[in-house]
């Protein structure tokens, strides 16, 4: 399945990591923005078709872009394939390391933002539940701004089994909940962690919660008691990947 991407950073990342999956680049006539100019130059070097001054015609791709017009720059890119959960945890080691599990997150903007932040902080992989979760649409890729190309991910049908695989590989399981007693600052950073983030409304599912070795929270310092899950994820990643 192909996606119509409109963020030049997401397109450039795909060109750099898997150029064979970039089908074409479409830009309007005239001088492109600096970011799209980089995309065009890279696509030209890779001999990927570049189409300009096109008549307005509908474009169809998977996900949120049901009927797009060619008035704005965009590229057609095949979906990136996930990996087996065993591959995500094939080389864990005993030192620090961070993986994420998204337990039924349903907002594509949250998923995309988490991928972008995960790439920034060097997260080693992301597990997504196959059912009851936001699919990896063009919106996710564009919000991730290239992050989805650099972080390996798996989409198992059973998150509990994936958590068991991580634990067998030597990874500790850390749940996040605003109702936890322990602050994330008290979590030791000298070991590998799988951080599990719950649904935007209901949080972690019961079985996910019960499988965790520890549960942590972000302690509010003001009057608002909680954060959007993608914002909370960024703060948690920053804390858990901080130098020892």
Write up what this structure looks like:
- The chain is an alpha/beta fold.
- It folds into 2 domains: 2-78, 60s Ribosomal Protein L30, Chain: A (2-Layer Sandwich); 85-240, SPOUT methyltransferase, trefoil knot domain (Alpha/beta knot, 3-Layer(aba) Sandwich).
- Helices cover 32% and strands 19% of the residues.
- The chain is built from 9 helices and 11 strands.
- It has helices spanning 8-17, 34-45, 85-88, 108-121, 138-144, 147-150, 159-168, 206-211, 229-240, and strands at residues 2-5, 22-27, 50-52, 74-78, 97-102, 126-128, 153-154, 172-176, 182-183, 192-197, 214-217.
- A 7-stranded parallel beta sheet has the order 7-6-5-10-8-11-9, sandwiched between helices. A 4-stranded mixed beta sheet has the order 1-4-2-3.
- Helix 4 (108-121) links the parallel strand 5 (97-102) and strand 6 (126-128).
- Helix 4 runs parallel beside helix 5.
- The radius of gyration is 19 Å and the shape is elongated.
- It starts with a strand and ends with a helix.
- 39% of the residues are buried.
Write the layout of secondary structure elements.
Elements: E1 2-5, H1 8-17, E2 22-27, H2 34-45, E3 50-52, E4 74-78, H3 85-88, E5 97-102, H4 108-121, E6 126-128, H5 138-144, H6 147-150, E7 153-154, H7 159-168, E8 172-176, E9 182-183, E10 192-197, H8 206-211, E11 214-217, H9 229-240
Parallel strand pairs: 2-3, 5-6, 5-10, 6-7, 8-10, 8-11, 9-11
Antiparallel strand pairs: 1-4, 2-4
């Amino acid at each position: 399945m192909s996606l119509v991407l409109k963020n030049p950073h997401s397109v450039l990342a795909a060109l750099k990591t898997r150029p064979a999956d970039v089908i074409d680049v479409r830009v309007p006539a005239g001088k492109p923005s600096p970011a799209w100019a980089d995309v065009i130059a890279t696509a030209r070097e890779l001999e990927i078709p570049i189409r300009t001054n096109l008549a307005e015609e509908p474009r169809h791709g998977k996900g949120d872009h049901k009927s797009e017009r060619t008035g704005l720059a965009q590229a057609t890119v095949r979906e990136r394939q996930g990996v087996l959960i065993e591959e995500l945890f094939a080389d864990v080691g005993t030192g620090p390391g961070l993986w994420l599990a998204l337990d039924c997150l349903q907002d594509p903007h949250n998923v995309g933002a988490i991928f972008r932040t995960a790439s920034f902080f060097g997260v080693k992989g992301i597990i997504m539940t196959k059912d009851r979760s936001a699919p990896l649409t063009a919106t996710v890729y564009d919000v991730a701004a290239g992050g989805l190309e650099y972080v390996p991910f798996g989409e198992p049908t059973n998150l509990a089994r994936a958590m068991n695989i991580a634990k067998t590989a030597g990874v500790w399981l850390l749940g996040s909940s605003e109702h936890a007693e322990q602050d994330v600052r008290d979590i030791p950073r000298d070991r590998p962690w799988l951080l599990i983030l719950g649904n935007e409304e209901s949080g972690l599912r019961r079985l996910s919660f019960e499988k965790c070795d520890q549960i942590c929270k972000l302690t509010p310092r003001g009057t608002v008691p909680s954060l959007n899950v993608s914002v909370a994820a960024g703060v948690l990643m920053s804390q858990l990947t901080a130098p020892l």
